[in-house]
Amino acid sequence: MSLPKVTPPGPHRRHRRGGPEGAASPCRALKASWVLAAGVLCLPVNRAVADEEMYKAKNCFACHRVDRNHLAPQFKVIAAKYAGAPGAEDLLARKIREGGVGVWGNTPMPPQPQVTESEAGTLARWILGLK
Question: Rounded to whole angstroms, how far apart are CA atoms 67 and 64?
Fold first, then answer.
């Protein structure tokens, strides 16, 4: 006895999921939600995290720490000193690029020419945002 030959359905006979013509299936809608959620999670995580990475990449950590003194004042103390001061962001950005001496003692901060003006502004905003 031989079994009848069964042919797989062709592209025109595939099982269609979902409702009426053109309607998205619940499964497809769920997948779309997950893709959207994953996309949101892939956005720049948090500016603080991104700027903390810049702080490391630009070698600020050679002298500064976020929450303790090292060779230079901690960033949280700098943020507290300039909190609410008019033009603080521009002042700090300029000090990052040009260096300075006298505000925190006699130890000079050397100029950081490898930091662009834009990066200096980003770092200054990050420092001022620390609590």
Answer: 9
Q: Is the Cβ–Cβ distance between 60 and 115 less than 8 Å?
A: no
Interval 31-75: pLDDT, tens:
555 444 444 344 444 455 557 788 888 888 899 999 999 999 999
Return d(Cα 78, Cα 120) in angstroms, integer.
15
CATH class of 47-128: mainly alpha
Given a contact cutoff of 8 angstroms between Cβ atoms, the answer to whether 50 and 44 are in contact is: yes
pTM over 0.85: no
Residues comprising the chain, all counted:
131
